[in-house]
User: Fold this.
Amino acid sequence: MATQEIINVGAVPNDGDGDPLRVAFQKVNNNFTNLFSTATFVSNTYSVGNTAGQVIWSTPANTMTTATFFVRSSDPGTNNSQTVTITSQLSANSNNVKFTAYGTTFFGNVLTSYDMGVVGGNVLLKVNPETGNTLLHFISASVFFVGNNVPGLNIELDGYVPGSVMETENNLLITTEE
Assistant:
């Protein structure tokens, strides 16, 4: 993740020790570029059965730095539902992701636990269902990318048919935007 560039304003006004105007405004531009390197994703995906480690979201590790997820998991055959908010950060070497999750059961029984990791160069959000039922996972994510956003990047599903990508109920591919 890019760091904030602090403008050196000197010790006192007009002491000549601060950044020249050109350098100062380059830092301003860089700081604003960092602000606009965020993409927002919304999708529905399903997990089937109670096999642990089912991937419900994926993105390349070489572009992501941090992300915040809101996931609402529900069992369409019952009234059971739960939500979780997950904040995550990719390690500097892109080999590991650290995350914190806060969850609430809206109604009924606990449906699943959540896990994150880096596998095959992709950051994965995974579920470990407690039930053998098919679960619906509504995912809303805000992801901070390295550098400029990469528009049109498909969000792929790991562990499914190669090239599987997340899509909406209207068959629109879930991709990054500018």
About this structure: The helical segments are 21-35.
